[in-house]
Amino acid sequence: MLASLLAAFYETVRQGSITAAARRLDVSQPTVTSRIQQLEKRYGVELFFRRGSRLDLTQTGATLMPLIDRMMQTEHDIDFALRNERELFAGSFRLGATGPYYILPTIAAFRRRYPHVQLGIEIDNSQGVLDSLMEFRVDVAVSSNAVDDPSLVCHRIAHDQLVLVVAPEHPLAGKGAVELGVLRSETLLLREPGSRTRDATEAALARHAIEPAALIEIGGREAICEAIRHGLGCALMPSGEVPRGASLVAVPIAPEGPVVHEYLYHLRSRANTRLMLAFMATLNETLALTPKMPIRL
């Protein structure tokens, strides 16, 4: 019972509002409010200063947050350990990725080897999947962000060059290669903030002092591909992430496009669990069979 009360308080602080906390906990807003009030009443404390709809932490509430954070980590570690103790004949393994392109061969191989392990895949941008890992919503995260965090183990699993993606009828579609300067007369479609592809695109444009004719921000790779098909503009995208087929054309960047790297992260505290060891063994075997692209920086 206490855990549910603490979770309501914890998520309200982390999410910034009772509404967002209710969504995160999958309960109603009155339930979150009631649990916080029960917690305050049980111990005779005030956790928030209430000013209308605004909630500000009291000193007591601020002191409580790191304690609950450790409790939540322990709870998730217990969950992970119990899922591991089923000899890989059951349980679940959750993966967060910016896209399935680089990790799908490993997932397929892992599925064939351990068919009774339930797999879950969460798609988000580079920062989003790392946040999910740190919040224990996924067990591994595949991200383009390079993170130096002692609590994480990092494996570089791929590197890819950005290409210009256009519709088949676009004048640039028939080119063997183009320079980045062509974007000065094009509408460029950009991913949402937090996307490593967007960061690499903006860095390349700044490095060459290139300002596109127009910019449109569209959240999500699939939405950008659909916008390109409808003639809204073009985009820079890692070549391995361009959907296969005749609906889009990938044009190489001359002399060579910016390179993005793809990393797989997991928590160092879980490095020696059965599920993690099994998944990493499958990953290493899959990577050994994958053709390597020369790294150009």
Helix content estimate: 25-40%
Main β sheet profile: 7 strands, mixed
Q: What is the percentage of strand-forming residues? A: 15-25%
Q: What is the H-and-E element order? A: HHHEEHEHEHEEEHEHEEEH
Structural class: alpha/beta
The overall pLDDT average reads 87
CATH class bucket of the largest domain: Alpha Beta
What's the helix count?
9
How would you describe this structure to a colleague?
This protein is of the alpha/beta class and 297 residues long. The protein folds into three domains: 2-69, Orthogonal Bundle (Arc Repressor Mutant, subunit A), CATH 1.10.10; 84-157 and 261-288, D-Maltodextrin-Binding Protein, domain 2 (3-Layer(aba) Sandwich); 159-259, 3-Layer(aba) Sandwich (D-Maltodextrin-Binding Protein, domain 2), CATH 3.40.190. The protein contains nine helices and eleven strands. The chain has helices at residues 2-15, 18-25, 29-43, 59-84, 104-113, 126-134, 196-207, 221-229, 274-288; strands at residues 48-51, 54-57, 92-97, 118-123, 140-143, 152-166, 187-190, 214-217, 235-238, 249-251, 259-267. The strands form three sheets. Strands 3, 4, 5, 6, 9, 10 and 11 form a seven-stranded mixed beta sheet that branches. A two-stranded antiparallel sheet has the order 1-2. Strands 7-8 form a two-stranded parallel sheet. It is globular. The model is unreliable at 292-297 (pLDDT under 50). GO terms for molecular function: DNA-binding transcription factor activity; transcription cis-regulatory region binding.
